[in-house]
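Re: duplicated header lines in exported structure tokens

Our pipeline writes sequence and tokens for each protein into one text file. With two proteins the header for the second block appears twice in some exports. Here is an export where it did not happen, for reference. First protein block:
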Amino acid sequence: MTPQEYVQKKAVASGSSFYYAFLFLPKPRREAITAFYAFCREVDDVVDEMVDPGVAATKLAWWKSEIAQSFSDQPTHPVTKALMPTVASYHIEQRHLLAIIEGCQMDLEQTRYLDFVALQRYCHLVAGVVGEVAANIFGQTQDATTAYAHKLGLALQLTNIIRDVGEDALRGRIYLPVSELQQFDVKAHEILKRQYTDDFQQRFTALMCFQAERAHRFYDEALALLPQADRRSQKPGLMMASIYRTLLREIERDNFSVLNQRVSLTPLRKLWLAWRVQALGRL
């Protein structure tokens, strides 16, 4: 299997909404974003599939070493072999990849975030930096597009957090800020138990409405930041905004039943949403 085949398989197997946004890119950009996405998946899987935190930490340390070695023209992993030929063309820097690893490292070291400022730092590393790199690969020409990419990355990550509350609870993680749990009188142990009572349902729904409203606000702010000159090149990001915001609305319509199920969109619906942005320019 060639490095290109490996990263393609990794992207398809993930079942992620990102895959649908890649389909409409010219081949060189599609190959670059696929390799970059495969890298993100590799390091994220280290944490998500963790059995032993010590082993996971060792694997992330290996990835740091692999990135340093790759930028010295000695990649050894199929992902870095596929990614490195694209870094110069699309301004992918070593610091970008190390920041993403640092964000995954945070998942090994903490399972709570005291306030939204602390959560934002995590989101910056695992989503904002990803958005910045992706915007360059898509064809960014305006400096202001970087701010858009970071803000959109934050909105997408907050949507992920809302969707995955139940799955994260199974791993002992709660990404909802502690200060906001306190604000809505929701106890951490109630989320970890994943058991609804009438009283808990009311408090939890209020908390999740607050989270969703903030995510919607960041989508609006991101779209307002995107320069008109880059709107065409950034269509893949706009596809992601359309898909994830539709997902967020589905979660809202389902009254935030995220503790015991994963709300998702069908592949056909994701493809339709992506095509609508590509063909009609509409979110």
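Second protein block, exported in the same file:
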Amino acid sequence: MTEQQLLRRIKRKTGEAIGAFNLIEDGDRILVAVSGGKDSWALLHVLRELCRRAPVNYQLVPVTIDPGFADFDSAAVAACLRAHGFEPVVEKSNCAEIIASHLRPGSSYCAFCARLRRGALYSCASRLGCNKIALGHHLDDHIETLLLNLFFSGAIAAMSPKLAADNGIHTVIRPLVYVEEELIREWVVMKGLPQIDCACPQKSASDQQRQQIKQLLATMSATNPHIKNSLIKALGNVQARHLLDKRLKDF
């Protein structure tokens, strides 16, 4: 596919999710979390494309959380945003320092970092007058999270495309929920967008389980190319009375 064909496909799937879950409404001011990775680039560009012909009016505010990791190049993210016509906001944080001094032995480095980043996004959204926060989690992220929880946490849980934030003020949205990671990867390469690493010092160690899940899905997809679509469909087709959760006994 060409760059434009890829973009149209991503736009169609994103629009489908926005409509299905009412992710964007008239008057929304949306903080778009831009990490510098492929997913956040795709999210920002696609939301801008959709905004041009949307039946509702909404604003996009790209925000980059600088976690304080020594090698994270927030200046490069900001420069790319400007080059593509966006006005960047870089929020400096002390996530790296807090993690170094407060992470408990045996706790997840990534999970702790994600909570700190999310808190920084909430604070920034309040300051900038944003009522929603858009994150770049795609279809593969949702499926992998489901399987990670099943295999390693003993829970049937994934990520919601629309969720009231922990602070009770903002709404977190994930418009790329129906978009496959491979589509995003191909489009970002064709578009010539940089992929700026988060520079997390623990990335390789903390990512091991997710890589195992990715490999499992790749192996299964080789014999059943529809496996991912089946799994994402399953997340919206919960048969509560066939589960063992005693809280669901009345179903």
